[in-house]
């Protein structure tokens, strides 16, 4: 859907406004797939770079702008874009952003200034540890759920065999087969019940580890 902002057409996720005598271009959440001629000609490339850097966008983003604007014979001001992006990265390369990046499980493409990167990486690794712990919880819960479903299926099969065992008209040979099925199911149910206790403990331990990591991970700006 297209809307109008001060006479300039913008797409969803793109905002162009007037500030300090120049147009402000903001391509949010995933970048711009295309830009109009007006956007290309009026963009404040330093501001565009700052916004991209402040979101942690890679330098390859400017290639998208170059491609879009080439249709109108316009080239981005790369020096201005890089200068703005470098300033934006100083806003992005903070411990809280690093932690959230790691917590989400996304990779870090090593873009922060050298003096900020050690602190950024430290918080990023904290987030990754929490992400890994959360994955263990998910896997443990999934294994328990599958195990419980298997146990319920086995109990249902045992109940069916027991019902068939006492049904009229069943031959002696078939009764012996059904009795074997019932006894075999009983042994398997006992085994699965013991395993369920182990799986429940694994789930609880994984949850405890996750809570401890989340508690110990500092919330920093």
Large-scale geometry? elongated
Secondary-structure-based class equals mainly alpha
Number of strands: 4
Q: Give the overall average pLDDT.
A: 83
SSE string, helices as H and strands as E: EEEEHHHHHHH
Instruction: Report the uncertain regions.
Output: 1-33
Helicity, as a percent range:
55-70%
Proportion of residues in β-strands: 5-15%
Supply the number of helical segments: 7
Rg (CA only)? 30 Å
What is the makeup of the main sheet?
Answer: 2 strands, antiparallel
Overall structural domain count: 2
> What oligomeric state is this?
single chain
Question: What is the end-to-end distance?
Answer: 35 Å
**Biggest sheet, strands in spatial order?**
1-2
Describe this protein's structure:
The structure is a single chain. The protein is mostly helical and 221 residues long. It has 2 domains: 3-92, no CATH class; 138-216. Helices cover 65% and strands 8% of the residues. It is built from 7 helices and 4 strands; from the N terminus they run E-E-E-E-H-H-H-H-H-H-H. A two-stranded antiparallel sheet has the order 1-2. Strands 3-4 form a two-stranded antiparallel ribbon. Helix 2 packs parallel to helix 4 (78-92), helix 5 runs parallel beside helix 6 (117-165) and helix 6 packs antiparallel against helix 7. The longest helix has 49 residues, at 117-165. Residues 1-33 have low confidence and may be disordered.
């Amino acid at each position: 859907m297209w809307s109008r902002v001060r006479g300039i057409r913008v797409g969803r996720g793109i905002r162009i406004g007037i500030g300090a005598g120049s147009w402000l271009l903001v391509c949010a959440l995933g970048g711009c797939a295309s830009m109009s001629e007006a956007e290309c000609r009026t963009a404040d490339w330093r501001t565009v770079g700052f916004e991209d850097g402040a979101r942690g966008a890679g330098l390859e983003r400017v290639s998208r702008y170059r491609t879009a604007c080439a249709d109108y014979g316009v080239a981005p001001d790369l020096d201005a874009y890089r200068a703005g992006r470098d300033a934006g990265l100083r806003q992005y390369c903070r411990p809280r952003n690093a932690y959230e990046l790691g917590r989400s499980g996304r990779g870090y493409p090593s873009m922060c200034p050298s003096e900020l990167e050690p602190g950024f990486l430290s918080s990023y690794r904290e987030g990754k540890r929490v992400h890994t712990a959360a994955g263990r919880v998910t896997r443990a819960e999934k294994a328990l759920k599958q195990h419980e479903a298997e146990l319920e299926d086995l109990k249902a099969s045992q109940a069916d065999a027991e019902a068939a065992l006492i049904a009229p008209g069943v031959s002696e040979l078939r009764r012996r087969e059904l009795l074997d099925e019932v006894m075999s199911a009983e042994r398997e149910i006992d085994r699965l019940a013991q395993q369920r206790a182990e799986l429940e403990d694994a789930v609880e331990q994984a949850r405890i580890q996750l809570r401890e990591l989340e508690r110990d991970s500092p919330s920093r700006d």
